[in-house]
Design goal:
162 residues; mainly alpha; Arc Repressor Mutant, subunit A; two-stranded antiparallel sheet; 51% helix; elongated
């Protein structure tokens, strides 16, 4: 998974803390973590294409969450940044070379590849876990372990509400 996923999840968390009425420029979100603004913008554009954030242009423009944080899962963010392709791609090498289809290692051509089956099972468990956690869940966990985090974010972004 590339670092853009981490950046996107943190940005969604910050936008959740700032509320739906506040749009934040990509450059400001990037500056909060001292990250390159152009690359942060690329991640935010991917989130916008996936319907996770909306973008508003103009002097008070920027990004905001497109739906409540309870309705945005970690899997939504991962899929927006990484795509929805399977992480493991079986190319059936068991049928090549010395391991060819007559070999005990490869098994018969009509049996599923045991490695692919195991990897798919693990990926489905991973995807289910990510889909079970929302941005709101992450915010609640952060609030539990670092109660001042949301207020620090709001203060840094110039949000004066308490």
């Amino acid at each position: 998974m590339n670092e853009g996923v981490e950046w996107a999840v943190h940005s969604c968390l910050n936008l959740a803390w700032l509320g739906e009425d506040r749009a934040v420029p990509a450059a400001k979100l990037a500056a909060f973590y001292e990250l390159p603004a152009a690359y942060m913008n690329k991640q935010l554009q991917a989130l916008a294409r996936a319907g996770i954030v909306t973008s508003t242009s103009g002097p008070r423009g920027g990004f905001r969450l497109a739906r409540p944080p309870e309705k945005i899962t970690l899997m939504d963010v991962v899929a927006a940044i990484e795509g929805s392709e399977e992480a493991f791609r079986c190319t059936e090498i068991r049928h090549r070379g010395g391991s060819g289809s007559g070999s005990a290692v490869s098994g018969r051509g009509d049996t599923p590849c045991a490695i692919h089956t195991s990897m798919r099972k693990a990926e489905l468990a991973w995807r289910r876990e990510l889909a079970s956690q929302s941005i709101a869940d992450i915010a609640a966990t952060v609030d539990e372990h670092s109660p001042a985090a949301a207020e620090r974010v709001r203060r840094w972004f110039g949000d004066t509400r308490t």
